[in-house]
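User: Please write out a complete single-protein record containing the residue sequence and its fold in token form, without commentary.

AI:
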Amino acid sequence: MSQPALQPVPRVGLVGWRGMVGSVLMQRMSEERDFDAIETTFFSTSTAGKPAPKITGCKVFDPILRDGNDVNALKTMDIIITCQGGDYTKAIYKPLREAGWKGHWIDASKILRMDDDAIIILDPVNMPVIKSALSKGITNWIGGNCTVSCMLMGVGALYKAGLVEWMQTSTYQAASGGGAPNMRELLTQYGALYAEVKDLLADPASAILEIDRKVTAKQRAFTPEETANFRGVPLGGNLIPWIDADRGDGTSLEEWKGGAETNKIMGLGKMFGTPEIPIDSTCVRIGSMRCHSQSLTFKLKKDVPLADIEAMIANDNPWAKFVPNERVATETQLTAKNVAGTMNIPVGRVRKLAMGPEYLGAFTIGDQLLWGAAEPLRRMLRIIQGDIA
């Protein structure tokens, strides 16, 4: 099967450009001048007919917002990029294909990720998988789970080298992974907790245990409305060791994604006719605004000198940043405060473990709105156009 022929300047439809991921995507496309080589049409599911947005560097093909639910309008696009979410993909994707559309579908949502005719895109890690799929006529390009993508941007070199026998991870995932309302809820809870004890905090003679008791009592007194976005559990000053649906086998959907998506990104598993690498996860939501981090334990297939591992990580791609395993470097480089809003994926705490020379520990963190969401989408657009090889 061959790829659909592109116009010299392809028509690209953008859906979901106003949300959190969509806004970051628009910013990155503007910064990288992706709009220079495309004719852009903006779609909306709620405000069709209003003027299209004005984005730096973007030459709009149509000055009016088109209806994102109009299959006939969508059919005129060569490429569609959607950050509108899973419900939109469920409603539109199948009717669009059934109507005969053969263009490229680039999607941030999870709905199509594990389909056999879809590829999870993370080109600095799996460009060979993407190129193979392009040669076979695949046209569905899906962004991966944010935590998985950030992890592989950091330590993908170990997978590429075929060194990983198995991996176990504990994740520490920010409120932003749940969406903008979740971030607002977290900050509101922090504000309420501070208001509860601000007078005591102002008094140097106050007892810290009394402050702690008042904070805990306030957390337990939050109303369902104040904790609606995390299923009735306050995240402010707290953590939640469960993310996403219960699969009924003792694992969450988020934990299942860690193994399923890592293997698919790397071209491993039944779809590719190769064995999967066992990967287990424990996923934890923490009271951080942005950036997902994770502690990793690897069983390697052989004993590899630590210096060689450090060099593999540092040289794998321009965004992976090796952090020396020492206190000051860790405190200043391997934190959400340092990484938020940047393309860097620092990897630190790299060390051999007491279990044996084949066992490796590491810690990595990344801004899940960039490499974990928006960046692979805009890069896939460039790959389709032949600008990234």
